[in-house]
Write a structure and sequence with these properties.
41% helix, 121 residues, Glutaredoxin, alpha+beta
Length: 121
């Protein structure tokens, strides 16, 4: 027997959770500058890639703060988001729907830096 519309509800819940995470990442108050947020699962492989990526972002744009996991990350997630001062956000990379193999979930740091440059200019 086919499921009865549960999938749509689950997708709506995921969107609501993502919006809630962004509000929490903002600290609930107005930001004065743009911020890069890296959300990654807490397994060892994800952490190594997040560290390399945050280092590349800090070297490329030292004026931008980079936050790694400001809230509890979702299981299997690897996302990089630019939070703008006006409250909007731009997805620089998402690896949630990528893979297997697992290495497809992680971007090359230079790809994310190029995407960041597009949004900052």
């Amino acid at each position: 027997m086919a499921p009865r519309g549960r999938k749509r509800k689950a997708e709506a819940a995921v969107v609501a959770v993502a919006e809630k995470r962004e509000k929490l990442a903002n600290g609930g108050e107005g930001m004065e500058e743009a911020t890069v947020v890296i959300e990654h699962c807490t397994s060892r492989v994800y952490g190594r890639n997040a560290a390399a990526l945050s280092q590349a972002l800090r070297l490329e744009a030292p004026e931008l703060p980079v936050k790694v996991n400001p809230t509890k990350p979702r299981r299997g997630s690897f996302e990089v988001t630019l939070l703008r001062p006006d409250g909007s956000s731009a997805e620089l990379w998402t690896g949630i729907k990528k893979g297997p193999p697992r290495k497809l979930k992680f971007p090359e740091p230079q790809e994310v830096v190029e995407e960041l440059k597009k949004y900052l200019s």
